[in-house]
Design goal:
Elements: H1 3-8, H2 40-46, E1 67-69, H3 70-75, H4 77-83, E2 86-89, E3 92-96, H5 97-100, E4 104-106, E5 114-118, E6 121-122, H6 124-132, E7 136-138
Parallel strand pairs: 1-4, 3-5, 4-6, 5-7
Antiparallel strand pairs: 2-3
Length: 140
């Protein structure tokens, strides 16, 4: 028993007054009891805690796209050519990002060679960088 509690044993009300320390009635019930009635003001200040709100977007609309950038293509180019994902034809290197599972190309990095990238979508800066290096982006 904690010291402060032990000191009060033997007294009639243990420091709580007469009727206030008997049950949970003075505080309006235990825990969240009465949160929709007597304690409503307190819970409205905290925020919405009961009832339905919001909605869940349908999974046909929500689709996470997997993205890659120009720098990753530059770093993994030799491995892609070795695995047959990228093909070199003259000066232009054709890379099919759709085969790897990427569906968007972002512009981080600078292309050192001319690429022909097959990808469903690409950012505008990625298109600018690839075309300025002498390549092209094919949307499929």
């Amino acid at each position: 028993m904690p010291r402060s509690k032990a000191k009060k044993t033997g007294s009639r009300t243990r420091g709580r007054g007469h009727k206030k320390g008997r049950g949970a009635g003075l505080r309006g019930g235990r825990g969240n009891a009465g949160s929709h009635k007597t304690k409503r003001v307190m819970y409205e200040r905290v925020g919405r805690i009961w009832g339905r709100y919001g909605f869940k977007r349908p999974q046909s609309v929500v689709k996470a796209s997997s993205v890659t950038n120009i720098r990753e293509i530059e770093e993994n180019l030799e491995m892609m050519i070795k695995d047959g994902i990228a093909k070199k034809k003259g000066d232009v290197i054709t890379v099919s990002l759709l085969e790897i599972g990427y569906d968007k190309l972002l512009s981080y990095g600078t292309p050192s060679k001319a690429y022909r990238v097959v990808v469903p979508s690409a950012s505008t800066r990625a298109i600018e960088k690839i075309t300025s290096a002498g390549g092209e982006i094919v949307n499929e």
